[in-house]
Specification:
The protein is mainly alpha-helical and about 300 residues long. It is built from twelve helices and six strands.
């Protein structure tokens, strides 16, 4: 059985409307890890701080929150730790629902490690955006919460699955995900324009949303550093490593390697069938390194067919 004969590899989706591949598990570890860390951190916040008008203050909340004064003292860990702290139970619950719903969509496309890296990037840049805007305000601003990362998930999920129908509370009809993302961004823009956001970090929301859009449009992968064309980007972890690694000099004595097309053997076909069944049952993250190499070899064989 060929790789493209299987239902979960068949691309019969409407043009411009991606859907999660059937048979693949969307329950990776990144989203669960994010939620677990945020929940544990909230309990630590409650144990080390106190409630002030319904919001947690002091203790680890004070050490992890992000503000301009802390950046001036080079307490750079706050750029990320503020995103795992929350002010009250409702703040935590709503953000974790967003991580669960939209983060799983992102993880089904990009994998667990890349999803975690993207969340960290969205949290970091959205926090800096809010602090950058607050720098011109005479009122000191300190922020906590994963909302910037959540909005990054929302826009990135919407860019990948624009026509996915979503059911919202109090709305009886499903709404395409792209319009939900537009609604989130539009609400923040409205609150910014009318200065009616209260204690909501609207610029952090908008910063996270922008990260999601730019990440999708650039095609860059943060860990590998490659983009859609296969080139390394200098603005990624993989790209930085490739920039610091000196290129290998070609050996003039070595003759150029000529690759000939070799039809897949029966054993390779059987291995592919076995591994695709494993993916269908347990998800792609269950594959070992050797099993991934087998699938890559099979994929190259199919591409080389005339």
């Amino acid at each position: 059985m060929g790789i493209h004969n299987r239902d979960y590899f068949r691309d019969d989706r409407p043009r411009g409307s991606m859907q999660p591949s059937r048979g693949f598990s969307q329950d990776g570890w990144a989203v669960k890890w994010i939620i677990g860390v945020c929940v544990v951190t909230y309990f630590v916040q409650s144990a080390t701080g106190q409630s002030n008008y319904g919001q947690l203050v002091g203790g680890i909340t004070e050490r992890f929150s992000l503000n301009l004064e802390s950046l001036k003292h080079l307490e750079l860990w706050r750029v990320f730790t503020y995103g795992i702290c929350h002010a009250h139970p409702q703040h935590l619950i709503f953000n974790m629902i967003g991580v669960w719903v939209f983060g799983r969509m992102v993880e089904s496309v990009y994998g667990s490690k890349e999803t975690l890296a993207f969340f960290a990037l969205a949290v970091g840049l959205s926090g800096l955006a809010q602090i950058g805007v607050s720098a011109i305000s005479p009122i000191p601003t300190s922020i906590i919460g994963a909302s910037g990362g959540v909005l990054g998930f929302v826009t990135l999920a919407a860019m990948n699955f624009p026509r996915m129908p979503m059911h919202l509370l109090f709305i009886p009809v499903p709404i395409d995900l792209k319009w939900i993302a537009v609604g989130y961004v539009g609400l923040d823009l409205y609150q910014v324009a009318g200065n009616s956001g209260g204690n909501v970090a609207n610029f952090a929301h908008l910063g996270g949303a922008a990260v999601g859009v730019l990440y999708f449009m650039s095609g860059i992968r943060l860990l590998t550093g490659s983009n859609r064309t296969g080139q390394k980007s200098p603005f990624s972890i993989g790209g930085v490593i490739s920039q610091l690694t000196p290129p290998k000099k070609p050996d003039p004595k070595r003759a150029p390697e000529v690759k000939l097309y070799e039809p897949p053997t029966e054993q390779l076909e059987r291995d592919v069938d076995r591994l695709l069944d494993k993916i269908n049952r347990e998800g792609k993250d269950s594959l070992t390194r050797e099993e991934r190499e087998i699938l890559m070899k099979a994929s190259e064989s199919y591409r080389n067919r005339v």
